């Protein structure tokens, strides 16, 4: 589990902010509650590893703030089961593929994210200034998570019982690197509705990355986040479903997918920084509805993606909530395309109770 403290408002790569992980804390809590002794030990070890990493942050900032920027440049490091970052350099730009599938997936996945943002939004890497994309694979032992730490990607290998390696899904890579985009743009506070918007933006653009790689039109995509992460032993298809929240998994160990599909079912409470991973499904579904109606024969980035990107980069503020995002996307739809598109975006939000 990662630190979801919500401290700080990261405006650049040097400021402290919570580790932003793909695996929601409620899943790890259910594993500790329902899993076997071995599975519980893995989940508890994840907690310990995250604590160790937080202690390394200052040292890593001193090193990585010196990284030059420019065109697409990817580096992959191997932690070899340890928790010291970044690890041993194992692949750089223009190197041949490795015999290690996780190294290649991290390398190719970060390249796909870079290519997507450049091709569709003319964005030059995470910070729009050519930031080098660093990744570390084989972090810790049987580590069940992947996270963006403010400067690089980190991937666990999964425990092999419940989760496969965390480099396996390109939308997970897109999700986590989009946390970096949000860090440099809207800097959405990681708490309550603004935190859920932060998570939703990562799902939205992570899903578009997968659709970009697979050349899928909006109505043909599966709209699943993390498909391939769950092993065959788990009763489920992914971590989340953007089109049908609450249906991604229903498993004796992981529990049942708790995500709501409507504002009427908004989950209140203090856990997970006010439910940032749970309630993100509400704006997620609004985007899915907007994308499939705005581009019924086209791609999600054609109109809906362009609207959401403009809102993320130029309209949202750190403490913006769901209603703010609704109003801004409705306005931008009109500004970019016209009244008909504005009506469809308004309808999408209304269908999720906003």
Explain this structure to me?
This protein has two domains: 20-184, Elastase, domain 1, CATH 3.10.170.10; 218-351, Neutral Protease, domain 2 (Orthogonal Bundle), CATH 1.10.390. 44% of the residues lie in helices and 9% in strands. It has eleven helices and ten strands. The protein has helices spanning 25-34, 37-54, 57-64, 101-121, 170-184, 192-214, 271-275, 281-294, 301-314, 322-336, 339-351, and strands at 20-21, 74-78, 88-92, 133-137, 146-148, 153-155, 224-225, 240-241, 250-251, 255-256. A six-stranded mixed beta sheet has the order 1-5-6-4-2-3, covered by helices on one side. Strands 7-8 form a two-stranded antiparallel ribbon. A two-stranded antiparallel ribbon has the order 9-10. A hairpin with a 4-residue loop joins strand 5 and strand 6. Helix 1 (25-34) runs antiparallel to helix 2 (37-54), helix 4 packs across helix 5 and helix 10 (322-336) packs antiparallel against helix 11 (339-351). Mean pLDDT is 89; it is low at 3-16 and 54-69.
In short:
It is an enzyme of class 3 (hydrolase). Its main location: secreted. The protein is an alpha+beta fold and 354 residues long.
The third-level CATH topology of the largest domain is Elastase, domain 1
The structural class is alpha+beta
How many helices? The count is: 11
Q: What average pLDDT do the residues reach?
A: 89
Record field, number of beta strands: 10
* CATH architecture identity of the largest domain: Roll
The percentage of residues in β strands lies in: 5-15%
Strand order in space, largest sheet:
1-5-6-4-2-3
Which word captures the global form? globular
Rounded to an integer in angstroms, the radius of gyration calculated over CA atoms is: 19 Å
N-to-C SSE series? EHHHEEHEEEHHEEEEHHHHH
């Amino acid at each position: 589990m990662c630190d979801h403290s919500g401290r700080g408002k990261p405006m650049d790569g040097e400021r402290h902010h919570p580790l932003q992980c793909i695996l929601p804390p409620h899943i790890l809590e259910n594993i500790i509650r329902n899993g076997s002794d071995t599975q519980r030990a893995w989940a508890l070890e994840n907690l310990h590893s995250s604590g160790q990493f937080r202690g390394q942050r200052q040292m890593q900032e001193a090193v990585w703030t010196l990284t030059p920027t420019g065109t697409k440049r990817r580096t992959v490091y191997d932690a070899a089961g340890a928790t010291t970052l970044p690890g041993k350099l194992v692949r750089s730009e223009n190197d041949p593929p490795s015999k290690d599938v996780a190294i290649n997936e991290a390398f190719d996945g970060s390249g796909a994210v870079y290519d997507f943002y450049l091709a569709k939004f003319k964005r030059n890497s995470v910070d729009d200034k050519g930031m080098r994309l660093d990744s570390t694979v084989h972090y810790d032992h049987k580590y069940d998570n992947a996270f963006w730490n403010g400067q690089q990607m980190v991937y666990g290998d999964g425990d092999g019982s419940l989760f496969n390696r965390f480099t396996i899904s390109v939308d997970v890579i897109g999700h986590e690197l989009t946390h970096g985009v949000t860090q440099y743009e809207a800097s959405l506070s990681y708490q309550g509705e603004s935190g859920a918007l932060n998570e939703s933006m990562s799902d939205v653009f992570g899903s578009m990355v997968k659709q970009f790689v697979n050349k899928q039109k909006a109505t043909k995509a599966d709209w699943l986040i993390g498909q391939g992460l769950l092993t065959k032993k788990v009763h489920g298809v992914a971590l989340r479903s953007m089109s049908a929240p609450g249906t991604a998994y229903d498993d004796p160990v992981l529990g049942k997918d708790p995500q709501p599909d409507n504002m009427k079912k908004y989950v209140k409470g203090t856990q997970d920084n006010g439910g940032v991973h749970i309630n993100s499904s509400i704006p997620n579904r609004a985007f899915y509805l907007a994308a499939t109606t705005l581009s019924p024969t086209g791609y999600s980035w054609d109109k809906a993606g362009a609207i959401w990107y403009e809102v993320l980069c130029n309209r949202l503020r750190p403490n913006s909530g769901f209603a703010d995002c609704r109003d801004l996307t409705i306005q931008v739809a009109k500004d970019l395309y016209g009244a008909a598109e504005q009506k469809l975006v308004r309808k999408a939000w209304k269908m999720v109770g906003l």
